[in-house]
Amino acid sequence: MNQIKPEQLDFNPFDKFGNQTALVCARKDDKYNMCTIAWGTIGKLWSKNVAIVYVKPIRFTDRFLKADDYFTITFLNDEHKNDLIYCGTKSGKHVNKMNIPTLRPIKLENGITFEGYETVFVLKKIYAGKFKKANFHKSDEIYNHYYSSERPHNVYIGEIVDIIQK
Question: Residue 22: which region, alpha, beta or left (left: phi > 0; alpha: psi -120 to 50)?
């Protein structure tokens, strides 16, 4: 595992979150759960290097994110496209994602990642909240487009405590 510093990142975050999907993973008791995410942010907040993910409260993984002090964001190589599709369309309520044969976990001190990773962010949760309709400033169009039939995303901000790259 090759640990790097945030200033050593060699990708465009707009491209990474815009054209690639990732897994967000968190632990609860002796289990973990992950789901595919396409929306995320990397930057500075409160004088800290942070990553932000947005997870719908209907996702089973959201329970794990609420329970864990840490979470990971794993960008996988192209060989794992089917795993990303599976984790984005199947719920941990109905299937045991811990038993996906092509997605082998790697235990880290503060989280879980998976073989086939390109980049892993290990994050210490520093904020959790949710989007509220009243806070969409003159943006009924956005709210109505994304949330007309389900509750808005929850927001998890994590301080980057480790970055691992292949």
Answer: beta
Residue 80 burial by Cβ neighbours in a 10 Å radius (0-12, 13-18, 19+): buried
Give me the amino acid identity at 44: K
Which class does domain 2-165 fall in?
mainly beta
Q: What is the pLDDT of residue 101?
A: 86
The domain spans of the chain are 2-165
| pLDDT of amino acid 120 | 97
Q: Examine the pLDDT at 97 and tell me if it is beyond 90.
A: no
Ramachandran sector of residue 29 (left: φ over 0; alpha: ψ -120 to 50; beta: rest)? left
Say how far apart CA 102 and CA 139 lie, in whole Å: 41
